[in-house]
Specification:
Layout lengths: L4 E6 L3 H10 L10 E2 L4 E5 L10 H8 L5 E5 L2 H5 L6 H5 L5 E4 L2 E4 L13 H12 L3 E8 L7 E7 L4 E6 L2 E6 L10 H8 L7 E4 L8 H6 L5 E6 L2 H13 L6 E5 L13 E4 L9 H7 L6 E10 L9 H35 L3 E14 L3 E12 L1
Parallel strand pairs: 6-7, 11-12, 11-14, 12-13, 14-15
Antiparallel strand pairs: 1-3, 1-4, 2-3, 5-6, 7-8, 9-10, 15-17, 16-17
C-alpha cells in the first residue's frame, strides 16, 4: 500500500477500529487489512478523510491512549536502501491541517536527516498519500508581534488557500497567516448568537475567525474589526468580499489600544490567548454608556495538578471539579476588575453578571482555553 495512510491497531482491537472507521466513512474499502509482524494490524484510510479523524475519541472508546496511531507504508524507504525503524515511525506526521488541496504539516515530523536524501520524491509521495496537490510545513510561530507562521512550501507554488467552516469561507496565505482550527466550537457558538440590530467590535479579528460568523450567521448590523497584522488585514478584506458582508464591516488596522471609537458597542469580542487583558480598557470604552453590553473574554487558565493515589475515575471527576472551580474563580475576579474599570472610566457604578463560561479546548498539561460571557450594565 505505497503512499497510503493507515491506522495501526492491536490485532485484538482491529474489528472495533474497523467499525469506527467505517462509521466515519474513512475506511478505504478498495484495500484489505494488513497484518504486521509485531502483532498489529494496518487499516487503510481514505486520504481525504485523514485530517477529520478524531483519534482521541477512538482511543477513549477503546479504553487506551496507545490503542491506535497513524502510520505510513514503507516502500519509499526500501527503494532508497533504508530499513524501517521506530525512530523513523515517530518522525512521521500524526496530525496536520488540510486547506483545500494544500496540507500543512506540523513542525515535529520529517526532521531526521534521512528524509533529505529523498528530495521531491518524498513530498510527492506524502502529498499523494494525503490526497493533496500542495504541501507545506510549519516550522514555528514567529516572535514578530503578529504571531506570523514560519512556513515552507514543500510542493506547489501558490500559498493562498481556501478553508470553509460552517458555510463561512476563509482565504489566507499559509506562509503569512495562522488558521486556528481548534476554535471551531467557539465559532459555531458565535454563529448561534442573535445579534440582529447590534454593533459588535472584534478587538482581535485576524483573518475574520469570529468577525465573519458574527456577520454571516449571527446577523450583526455592523462589526468593527480591529487587526494590526497587515497580512491578516489583507486576508480579512478578501474574506469580507468573498462572504458578501463587506458593506457591514469596518476594518481598523493598527493597535486596538489606540482605537478612537467609544460608546458604540452592544458586544465586544476579545479573542486573544493566552490573555486578552491588554484589551480590557479598550473594551470598556467601547461599550454603550446608557445600555452597556456583553464582553466575550478569552483566556488560557492553568488548573492545579492532581495528587497521586486516587484511581483514574476518581481523578477525572475531581479534576473536572477542580477545573471548574478555577474557571469560576478567574471569572469572578475578572468580573470585579471589569466593573472597577468601568467605574473609573465613567464615574458611575456598573453591574457585571457572569452569563456563561465556555470551555473551548485543552492543552497539556492542565491548560484550558475558556471564554467568559460577561454582561455589563450601568447601575
Amino acid at each position: 500500500m505505497d503512499g497510503v495512510p493507515c491506522l495501526r491497531v492491536s490485532r485484538c482491537l482491529a474489528q472495533h477500529f474497523r467499525r469506527c472507521l467505517q462509521s466515519e466513512g474513512a475506511l478505504d474499502l478498495s484495500l484489505g487489512l494488513v497484518g504486521d509482524s509485531d502483532g498489529t494490524v494496518l487499516l487503510p484510510i481514505l486520504p481525504s478523510c485523514l485530517s477529520q479523524l478524531d483519534l482521541q475519541s477512538f482511543r477513549t472508546t477503546a479504553g487506551s491512549d496507545y490503542a491506535c496511531e497513524i502510520v505510513w507504508s514503507q516502500e519509499l524507504l526500501e527503494s532508497h536502501g533504508e530499513r524501517w525503524t521506530e525512530e523513523l515511525r515517530e518522525d512521521l506526521p500524526h496530525s496536520f491541517q488540510r486547506h483545500g488541496d494544500l496540507v500543512l504539516l506540523g513542525d515535529h515530523c520529517f526532521a531526521l536527516p534521512l528524509w533529505k536524501k529523498m528530495d521531491d520524491k518524498l513530498w510527492s509521495a506524502v502529498a499523494r498519500g494525503l490526497g493533496a496537490k500542495r504541501l507545506a510545513k510549519m516550522r514555528r510561530i514567529s516572535r514578530d508581534g503578529f504571531r506570523s507562521p514560519e512556513v515552507t512550501v514543500l510542493l506547489g507554488e501558490d500559498s493562498w488557500v481556501k478553508h470553509v467552516d460552517n458555510g463561512v469561507t476563509y482565504e489566507f496565505d499559509v506562509t503569512k497567516c495562522m488558521f486556528s482550527a481548534g476554535n471551531i466550537t467557539e465559532k459555531l457558538r458565535v454563529a448561534g448568537f442573535d445579534c440582529r440590530g447590534e454593533t459588535v467590535v472584534d478587538l482581535y479579528a485576524g483573518i475574520g475567525y469570529f468577525t465573519l460568523p458574527y456577520l454571516v450567521h449571527a446577523k450583526a448590523s455592523h462589526v468593527h474589526a480591529c487587526e494590526w497584522n497587515p497580512n491578516a488585514v489583507e486576508a480579512l478584506q478578501r474574506n469580507l468580499v468573498a462572504n458578501r458582508v463587506s458593506d457591514r464591516c469596518t476594518v481598523h488596522q493598527g493597535d486596538n489600544r489606540q482605537l478612537q471609537l467609544c460608546d458604540i458597542a452592544d458586544r465586544v469580542n476579545l479573542g486573544l490567548i493566552p490573555s486578552s487583558e491588554d484589551g480590557w480598557p479598550a473594551a470598556c470604552r467601547l461599550l454603550k454608556r446608557t445600555t452597556g453590553g456583553i464582553l466575550h473574554i478569552h483566556q488560557n487558565i492553568t488548573s492545579p495538578l492532581q495528587t497521586a493515589g486516587d484511581n483514574d475515575a476518581t481523578q477525572r471527576v475531581s479534576g473536572k471539579k477542580a477545573d471548574r472551580e478555577v474557571w469560576h474563580s478567574w471569572a469572578n475576579d475578572t468580573a470585579n476588575r471589569i466593573a472597577s474599570l468601568l467605574k473609573d472610566l465613567t464615574g458611575a457604578l456598573w453591574i457585571t453578571n457572569i452569563q456563561h463560561i465556555e470551555h473551548v479546548k485543552s492543552y497539556a498539561p492542565h491548560v484550558h482555553h475558556v471564554v467568559l460571557d460577561l454582561e455589563c450594565r450601568p447601575s
